[in-house]
Q: What sequence folds into this?
């Protein structure tokens, strides 16, 4: 039996052993942060476009607002997709949900005479109900969410077109701005904040103004506020709460988590509802920005959201990822998309770039995963 | 207060037409290691999943501390003090030691209206809990993917003990481990017993079971062959009974292997277990 006790004595002998290992492990810790790739990628993109497009107006106030808005729109979707991916599931119906939710807002508001705020609440409730059904089918059948949500991608897109033709005889419903005038909830999506600050900046010459005296940026669009708000809340929930631990556990190994009493089914269903919520926020911001809804809105957005989450460090196998990372993934998207526009490069290159980015991100994540799981 | 913390009376479990368990009787005391032996497919995992609330017994009675009990879920069993360390360990490799340690029972503190995961205190507790089991973790925020199989096994056990388990069920804890790591795990089992827990140790490896067990129950093809105190049964007898249902060939080859390792052990004057350990070390 004597051989069996040595490891304990050994362990007790080095009771404060960390000092020796600290420096190595903190470098390793940084390397294993899921955000690392997307943060450094974003910095690289900024440097690149600062050099090639520095004088194109991309980094003027309106240029900045431009790519921030694009990033924010995608970022909202990416946050939902990222949390769901960490919990080990996919939602491919995000894009179709955007079109569907847009119609759920516009048709009741324009054709059924509903007050706009009730139409908005109706759209959120409807979208989250569909998210619930999507999630419920996934957890109860154990089918891959890839397939179930792919079905919803088609069902929702088809329904959006069919129902909008049925109710309005059109696939583009416009005139929402007029009915939304003065509606507080509509302003929470389509409005701007800080308008007085920006006009003050303009009148004092701190910001460029147009000939009529209005500043080139009149305020911060609500979509950016939603993005930042969701980023802070979701990152906090993921990293600092019990529910966040459940999200990681559900995606890391849902059988293991279940055996320890983690309600993984509930966690996943809630996150399917949350992606639907995010899609509806996106849809609402778009509807009130453009004043219209269109049946083809949100096409391919599910893939962009998943790509942003993957660039942000989320693993396709679940259990790993970061909200902040996904937001930086979306930022890379926005910066590159607008950067290509500002530099006048043919926008086809944007797709090439996206594919390459995705490939690099996946390879990088795979490498990190091997490090983290200690593939020895 | 009953003499036995756990008691099974004629418990059966069917999966459709498959009879996984038939009329199992078993009694487990606090402060003893009860070894559940049986070949692959004997029904060991099914039996402990029935104890752990994963499956319900199709028939029979289940007593916890003398009270008839039925668990609706694994959580129920856990709350009643029956903690199970499954073959697949119920650990998430990508998550940190602390997050794993508290998985499903997160330690929270209130800050304003928010209930937040108390990372600092959780780290301290996880570290201390593991140190008590003789495992030193460098950084409790490090993912457990980099830990060895034995360390992970010990982490899962330490977690169960920390959360006040009275009965600790271990499903094949040494199945995937080398000799040295197995020894570490068995040592942790001994510590759990010393703390007064009842340990149900599942294995099909008599050599691992024999040195530590106080009590044996043998399963074969879903039926119990009986229970024995260690004093009443020898290793050879157990092995022979385990092989009982098999072809003669299998039996003979297994016995031959056993005699061989036993001979090696005698030559090295220690137990079989230590001889095997020595052989393993010499090999490296
Ligand atoms: N969920 C299940 N459905 C159907 N059959 C099962 C199920 N679980 C176990 N069995 C059957 O019960 C028998 C006992 O299995 P198990 O308890 O895993 O054995 P052991 O752990 O002793 O190797 C096997 O024949 C297995 O096929
Ligand atoms: Mg088994």
A:
């Amino acid at each position: 039996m004597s051989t069996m006790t040595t490891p304990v004595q050994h362990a007790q002998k080095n009771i404060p052993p960390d000092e020796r290992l600290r420096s190595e492990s903190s470098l390793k810790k940084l390397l294993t942060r899921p955000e690392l790739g997307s943060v450094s990628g974003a910095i690289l993109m900024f440097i690149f476009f600062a050099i090639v497009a520095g004088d194109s107006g991309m980094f003027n106030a309106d240029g900045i607002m431009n790519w921030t808005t694009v990033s924010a729109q995608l970022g909202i979707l990416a946050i939902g997709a990222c949390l769901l991916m960490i919990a080990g599931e996919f939602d491919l119906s995000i894009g179709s949900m955007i079109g569907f939710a847009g119609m759920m807002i516009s048709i009741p508001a324009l054709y059924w005479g509903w007050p706009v705020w009730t139409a908005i609440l109706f759209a959120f409730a409807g979208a989250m109900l569909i998210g619930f059904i999507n999630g419920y089918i996934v957890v109860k059948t154990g089918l891959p969410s890839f397939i179930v949500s792919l079905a919803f991608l088609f069902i929702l897109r088809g329904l959006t077109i069919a129902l909008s033709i049925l109710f309005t005889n059109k696939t583009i419903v416009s005139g929402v701005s007029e009915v939304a005038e003065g509606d507080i909830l509509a302003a929470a999506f389509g409005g701007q904040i800080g308008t007085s600050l920006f006009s003050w900046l303009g009148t004092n010459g701190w910001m460029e103004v147009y000939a009529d005296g209005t500043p080139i940026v009149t305020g911060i669009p609500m979509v950016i506020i939603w993005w930042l708000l969701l980023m802070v809340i979701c990152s906090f929930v993921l990293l600092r709460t019990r529910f966040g631990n459940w999200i990681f556990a559900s995606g890391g190994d849902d059988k293991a988590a279940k055996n320890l009493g983690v309600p993984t089914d509930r966690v996943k269903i809630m996150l399917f509802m949350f992606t639907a919520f995010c899609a509806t926020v996106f849809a609402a911001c778009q509807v009130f920005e453009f004043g219209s809804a269109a049946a083809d809105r949100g096409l391919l957005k599910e893939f962009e959201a998943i790509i942003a989450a993957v660039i942000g460090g989320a693993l396709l196998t679940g259990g790993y990822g970061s909200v902040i990372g996904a937001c930086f993934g979306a930022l890379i998207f926005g910066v590159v998309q607008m950067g290509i526009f500002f530099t006048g490069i043919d926008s086809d290159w944007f797709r090439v770039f996206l594919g390459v980015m995705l490939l690099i991100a996946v390879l990088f994540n795979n490498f990190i995963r091997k490090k983290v799981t200690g593939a020895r | 207060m009953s003499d036995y913390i756990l008691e099974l009376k004629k418990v059966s479990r069917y999966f459709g037409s498959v009879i996984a368990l038939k009329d199992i009787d078993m009694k487990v005391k606090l402060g003893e290691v009860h070894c559940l032996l049986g070949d692959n497919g004997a029904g060991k995992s099914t039996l402990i999943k029935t104890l752990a609330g994963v499956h319900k017994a199709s028939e029979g009675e289940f007593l916890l501390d003398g009270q008839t009990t039925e668990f609706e879920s694994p959580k129920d069993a856990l709350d009643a003090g029956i903690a199970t360390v499954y073959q697949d360990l119920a650990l998430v490799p990508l998550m940190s030691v602390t997050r794993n340690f508290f998985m499903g029972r997160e330690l929270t503190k209130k800050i304003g209206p928010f209930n937040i995961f108390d990372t600092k205190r959780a780290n301290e507790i996880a570290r201390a809990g593991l140190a008590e089991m003789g495992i030193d973790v460098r950084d409790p925020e490090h993912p457990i993917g980099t830990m060895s199989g034995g360390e992970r096994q010990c982490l899962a056990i330490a977690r169960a003990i920390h959360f006040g388990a009275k009965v600790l069920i271990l499903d094949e804890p040494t199945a995937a481990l080398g000799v040295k790591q197995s020894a570490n795990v068995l040592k942790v089992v001994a510590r759990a017993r010393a703390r007064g827990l009842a340990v149900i140790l599942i294995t099909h490896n008599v050599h691992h079971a024999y040195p530590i067990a106080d009590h044996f129950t043998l399963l074969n093809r879903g039926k119990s062959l009986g229970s024995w105190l260690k004093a009443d049964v020898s290793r050879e007898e157990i092995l022979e009974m385990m092989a009982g249902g098999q072809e003669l060939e299998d039996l003979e080859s297994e016995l031959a292997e056993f005699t061989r390792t036993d001979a090696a052990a005698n030559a090295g004057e220690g137990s079989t277990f230590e001889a095997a350990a020595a052989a393993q070390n010499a090999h490296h």
Chain A touches chain B at residues 1, 3-5, 7-8, 11-12, 14-15, 17-18, 21, 25, 29, 32, 240-242, 244-246, 248-249, 252-253, 255-262, 315, 319-320, 369, 372-374 (CB under 8 Å).
